[in-house]
Design brief:
three-stranded antiparallel beta sheet, about 140 residues, 12 strands, seven-stranded mixed beta sheet, 1 helix, mainly beta, 2 domains
């Protein structure tokens, strides 16, 4: 099976690893019903999942259009990129302060923010930050002055 990358990227759509360039014989079929041709074609190979990708799946030879039957795939987004975009949309950003950050927030436990329900780093920060510090008053009278 030969896969066609719709975008001109050199990463595997399945495992997101780098593709290496190579050449191999590929059967090209004619749109007009002529005999198929076997031509040496430039291919991209994923060494991890062993998928073959072709750069262009259509070719014009002697006035006739030939094509390779392919499965069109689009590269998957990296999980880290998706999580970074989600954090940005929720207003979670990297903290520049050592005291005000997710690790000292009341809503943060086991690396998960209880407000946004997303896994966060200890150095992240959002607008709903709430400190653990609570003021305790021991005995005596209390005056508003």
């Amino acid at each position: 099976m030969v896969y066609y990358l719709s975008q001109n990227k050199k990463k595997c759509a399945e495992c997101n690893k780098d593709l290496i360039e190579g050449r191999d014989k590929v059967t090209w079929l004619s749109e007009e019903g002529q005999e198929p041709l076997e031509l040496i074609t430039d291919l991209l190979l994923c060494t991890t999942c062993r998928r073959l990708y072709i750069k262009s799946n259509r070719k014009k030879i002697n006035g006739e259009v030939y094509f390779v039957p392919t499965v069109e795939v689009t590269p998957k987004n990296n999980k880290r990129e998706n999580q970074a975009k989600r954090k940005q949309s929720l207003g979670i950003f990297a903290s520049s302060s050592n005291s005000k950050r997710c690790s000292t927030c009341e809503f943060h436990s086991n690396h998960v923010c209880a407000i946004h329900l997303i896994k966060t780093n200890t150095k992240d920060l959002c607008n709903q930050y709430k400190n653990h510090y609570k003021r305790i008053v021991y005995g005596g009278s209390f005056s508003s002055k």
